[in-house]
Design a protein that fits this description.
alpha/beta, 6-stranded parallel β-sheet, 12 strands, 10 helices, Rossmann fold, 18% strand
Length: 350
């Protein structure tokens, strides 16, 4: 009887093992390279992470990831993951640092999250960053009665400048006389953030009369939200719903459907329907208009505010938005008297 019992147990374990192996074979193997602000940035990279970990929790994929601290590591980590025979390499950074890798690994499929790159093995997810940023720019200009708006970016790169350009355009369509105060944190360790410098920049902007700061700076959003509450002022978050950080002081959050777009691309790879090419992702949030409304900020955005934002976006759709995704004209090279004020703050230590 004991022999029969242990024989049955052995057969059960063997069948279980076979089932598990079959499941692993059906999974997608993914390598993930996050942007410089790290996977816990409470913003763009974390939205990517949500999509990956969600599918991993469903046991539909296995993955390994890298969090580069600088541009050199971004490319070297991507090469490392591409050489590890993953089915797909997911890259959440500047396409300039992906392009040389995809050329050297033509047999690997890549997903570029946020950018445009033409290659036969790249699926590029291009978000309408300028349009989403224009929506929150309109929100900011409607709130800032004194016409002073701030922008604090985490890292001064093309993506941040594209978002800044949209923010400026949306605000100007509400108030052509608005003045912008622009700073970048440029932390020596972007993944860790720099809360002290973030605080200094925010306090300086509020002291200059800024009423609303667009916080496009990853995890340093928490520091800026705290300063906004202390100053009885406002910030705007980005990419994830950050309205909850300091209730009553986060006007809204710019929304790009990062998690959904990444999830759909990974689903395509899982189902064998992965195709390269450019995929343009429309803004998410409130009715797909690029900003987020929930119970924490609904009172701050009454119906008339939302109607104004819709009018602004309709104006842009009618052709006023030509070039909105390019680098903003007022990028620190404008002459005195312009409507953009670049910070005179000292640069962060290298």
């Amino acid at each position: 009887m004991k022999r029969v019992f242990w024989t049955l147990i052995g057969l059960l374990l063997l069948l279980t093992s076979c089932d598990e192996n079959a499941g692993v074979e059906d999974r997608l193997s993914v390598g993930v390279v996050y942007g410089l602000s790290g996977s816990a940035d409470k913003s763009f990279n974390e939205a990517v992470k949500f999509a990956v970990t969600g599918l991993a929790a469903e046991q539909r994929l296995v993955y390994e990831w890298r969090e580069p601290r600088d541009i050199d590591e971004m490319e070297s980590f991507t090469r490392e993951l591409a050489s590890d025979e993953h089915d797909v390499v997911l890259f959440a950074g500047d396409p300039a640092y992906l392009e040389p890798v995809v050329t050297d690994y033509p047999e690997v499929d890549f997903i570029l999250v946020g950018g445009e790159l033409e290659a036969p093995n790249v699926r590029a997810l291009s978000f309408q960053s300028g349009r989403a940023a224009a929506a929150v720019g309109a929100v900011a200009a409607l709130e800032a009665r004194g016409g002073q708006l701030g922008f604090i970016g985490g890292f001064d790169d093309r993506d941040a400048r594209r978002v800044l350009s949209g923010f400026q355009q949306g605000a100007r369509l509400v108030n052509p006389e608005v003045v912008f105060h622009i700073d970048f944190i440029n932390s020596a360790d972007p993944a860790a953030g720099d809360p002290q410098r973030a605080r200094e920049l925010a306090e300086r902007q509020y002291e200059r009369g800024v009423e609303v700061i667009f916080a496009y700076c990853g995890r340093d959003i928490e520091t800026l939200a705290t300063v906004a509450a202390e100053r009885d002022a406002f910030i705007i978050g980005s990419d994830l719903n950050q309205n909850w950080l300091e209730k009553g002081h986060v006007l809204t959050s710019m929304m790009r459907d990062v998690s959904e777009a990444v999830g759909e691309s990974l689903d395509a790879a899982l189902n064998g329907s992965f195709t390269p090419g450019l995929v343009r992702i429309p803004p998410g949030g409130e009715d797909g208009l690029g900003y987020f409304v929930d119970e924490t900020n609904r009172e701050l955005l009454p119906p008339e505010t939302r109607e104004t934002i819709e009018r602004v976006l309709r104006s842009m759709d009618q052709g006023i938005d030509e070039g909105m995704d390019s680098t903003p004209q007022n990028d620190g090279t404008t002459p005195p008297g312009s409507d953009t004020v670049e910070s005179t703050a000292e640069a962060p230590p290298a």
